[in-house]
Design a protein that fits this description.
It is a single chain. By secondary structure, this protein is an alpha+beta fold. The protein has one domain. Helix content is 24%, strand content 36%. The chain has 2 helices and 10 strands. The strands form 2 sheets. A 5-stranded antiparallel β-sheet has the order 2-1-6-9-8, with no helix packed on it. Strands 3-4-5-10-7 form a 5-stranded antiparallel β-sheet, with no helix packed on it. Helix 1 packs antiparallel against helix 2.
Length: 166
């Protein structure tokens, strides 16, 4: 009976880092890029570490970006600001240490967006938001291989220790 209790304790301790993490973005460092007039031309950029309560880029509109947990929220404060028509006129959230596996998107403003393993972006090309306009991304990620190896090593060490004691 004691060996089963030890096994449960070992498994619980190995799973603790996954339970303790608040969200996939918390603790992640990244850069918020504003691209204009195309996706290859950086107009301005700001580095951040999530959770970032508010990042406001200085390119024009009052556009607070809140990054943390599993989400990125963009809200619009200016009324009547228009984004110039261009190949790309928008934001890119770059997370070099994160492998993004899925993104859920919602907005009452635009549906021009995309993502890959390290980036999430939205294009406001030629649009004019209202004061209640928003864009929201909800990200999912898988642990990096190093994290999985550490978790697996801890489990194997704990099980090996239990076998020796039996």
């Amino acid at each position: 009976m004691r060996s089963y209790m030890k096994l449960l304790v070992v498994l619980a301790l190995c799973a603790l880092p996954m339970v303790a993490s608040a969200g996939v973005l918390d603790g992640q460092s990244g850069t918020l890029y504003y691209y204009y007039p195309d996706f290859g031309t950086v107009y301005t950029a700001d580095a951040f570490t999530a959770p970032a309560t508010v990042i406001t880029l200085t390119y024009g509109p009052d556009l607070p970006n809140v990054i943390g947990g599993n989400s990125i929220n963009i809200t619009f404060g200016n009324i009547g600001y228009s984004f110039t028509g261009a190949n790309f006129n928008g934001e890119d959230f770059y997370f070099p240490g994160l492998t993004i596996t899925s993104v859920a998107y919602s907005s009452n403003f635009t549906d021009a967006w995309g993502w890959d393993a390290h980036d999430v972006w939205v294009n406001f090309q030629g649009l004019t938001p209202n004061a209640d306009s928003y864009v929201n991304f909800t990200l999912s990620s898988t642990p990096e291989p190093g994290t999985l190896m550490l978790l697996g090593s801890g489990m194997l060490a704990g099980i090996g220790d239990l076998r020796r004691r039996l």
